[in-house]
């Protein structure tokens, strides 16, 4: 399974579309096998969910995310986990243990992108 984390450095980004990069983790059922960092190719409506889906991502983890992106991920059968914070790798490890669950944090105003993970 491939798990992507929207990140700022090694931390989970507060807003999916405005992250610096995506940390892509190749995993088996219980552990991380490999980690790749892919720079954010740019935020534009509808692009990033398809970009990650085309890379074979099964799960996306972020602090917050807009409803349009969530809808596209859902259409592509990619699980969305929002409301995450802290270290990206730790978030993935928590997800693999069944301890990380989505809070449903949906961003509605892009001018407050830094606050999205706090809903």
TrEMBL record:
This is Dinitrogenase iron-molybdenum cofactor. Signal peptide: none annotated. It comes from the Bacteria. Residues 9-96 form the Dinitrogenase iron-molybdenum cofactor biosynthesis domain. It holds the Pfam family Nitro_FeMo-Co.
